[in-house]
Amino acid sequence: MKNPERDAKIVRLFLEGVLTYAEIGARFGLSNERMRQILRDAGYRRRDYGTAVNSHASARAAAQKRADAVRGTMSPRCQKAVELVKSGLTFTETAAELGITRSAVAGACNRAGLKVGREPERLKKIAAINSEAAKALWAEVKAHEAKHNPKGKTP
Q: What three-state secondary structure class fits 150?
């Protein structure tokens, strides 16, 4: 069923570039497939405007980037993540501090244009963290082996 007024609103929301297909569809009670059809009939594709949005994650990231551009700033949480990384914390440490995922921290840094390189001091810090984790895991394995194989026999 064609609804030109609704379709025009959908195209306008799509062209604003802030919302994903799913978010626009939810406003009108439409599926992603119906959204795709409406936009296709209007002459647009998901790959228009320089961003491939073939998965929900990339669509969300693209929408976030566009929203940041429209607002002219990042959300306070993203700003805090960038500040913590600039202060020397790793992505993992920053994520734990803020209660978000490592990927969210990486995305915020990417949108901020922060290029976190592999500086020697950063690499040493990451190696130390990994070394401590490996030692703890090795001790756990040894304790498990001692408990379940007290005579040192190999299975």
A: coil
